[in-house]
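Q: Convert this sequence to structure tokens.
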Amino acid sequence: MKKVLLFFSVLAIVASSCQSNSYEDLALSQIAIVPQPQSIETTENGTMVISSGLTIVAVKEEELKIANYLKDYFAEINWTVKVKEDAPSSNFISIQQKSIGSDNIEAYVLSISQKGIQIEAANGKGLFYAVQSLIQMLPLDGEAVKLPVMKIKDEPRFAYRGMHLDVARHFFPVEFVKKYLDMMAFYKMNNFHWHLTEDQGWRIEIKKYPKLTEVGSVRKETMVEKNFNPYVGDGIPHGGFYTQEEVKEIVAYAMERQINVIPEIEMPGHSLAALAAYPELGCTPGPFEVGTIWGVNKNIYCPSEETFTFLENVLSEVVELFPGQYIHIGGDEAPKDRWKESAVAQAVIKREGLKDEFELQSYFIRRIEKFLISKGKKLIGWDEILEGGLAPEATVMSWRGEAGGIEAAEQGHDVIMTPNSVAYFDHYQAGPEGEPLAIGGFTTLQDVYDYEPIPEELSKENQKHVLGAQANVWTEYMKTTDYVEYMVFPRMLALSETVWSQPEVKDWARFQEKLNWQMQLLDARNVNYHKSN
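A:
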């Protein structure tokens, strides 16, 4: 067998240099799939012509779901498509749910013969990912195209492939969230971490506590750039929130794209917007107002019974909206100043036999975890939840480097790697001269691509606790959707290959060449992106 991988590195060079409009000339160059499949092989010479008028063959329920998704895509490029149970002699795509000999539930096989295309997978996940690979090989202008005869066998390296979006610092509309999900799906990312509450805004409707959105979703202004001292505000109110119906709509949209949505409801810190709405939840009488500056605020939830009742009521509504197994509770950057000064907090420390305020935070998180478990959910938190003792079944997102992830994995806890050195897309990716304002840092496309999510320090036994990796998009300085896209792309593509592809099939030079075609795909989807790599 002749491995396509051997000549893959020249494909995108052809795409960038060829001036011909012949799709026969460009067919091979279009095989610039991201993330890199585990295996691409040719078994014979020849091509298959795919064009408008094609037939999608599907019978079972899962097959039909994917067929209709693919049909919708073809409608966008003005192709006429029929969905039938029987394949014609040519120009068809057959979608078949069947065992393909892999234990990985997201595996697929995509075979192209001279007559048609065969997609096989054990379930809808694999079928969906095969379709994403196929779409990346198809024309952008609706013309017929010749694809090479070949077979792709593919499956992800990691089960967790995440992208985060902070909508609390700056609010973004439902349509943009859907576009974000579309692009995640296109690059086979499967977990959307939705950061919904912060000091600067509460973004999810909670029916039992209407003031959370009436008061907590709007700040009077936003600080101008990095004018902390002296503070300069822009004088423009900023607000917005998602109704529960909109949340349901987004969750359903994500599920259709094989994406699980993980809501984040911050506690005990980053809670100023909630305190502005319900000041009785603080350790001081306030007054509180929704935050207008970035950073860490000393006012956090007081560990009173009233607070726990509030949080349990909030989470009761949240868990009904999100069918996935995880609920993220933050747990990061919670100063203990107010707890040290609070009679209520000190009484809890004494009552529970705790050593200090760090153990009080552990007690706080453990109570919330117990409640979430009673609702059939798992708790995720940032690596600060390790401080004072980790909750029994918690999953840790390691953001302050990898140390927290290593510690948690060695304790037998699942871990998602998201170190700020390589996985924070609010960092500069070039410059900073000529670049839009970023929070700081410097994370290039290659930094993301070269990242290895499994630390060398972990034993082979503990490596299994590394579920995958995630990039975080904090939006303090990202005021528009174009701004978000510019910071995310093409770094999301690098991350997708890092978490999907096995290390032995990754190749930085080839990835750079594939970007020539991928940027055309981003252009076709009206995605803003950083063009230098």
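Confidence is low (pLDDT under 50) at residues 1-27.
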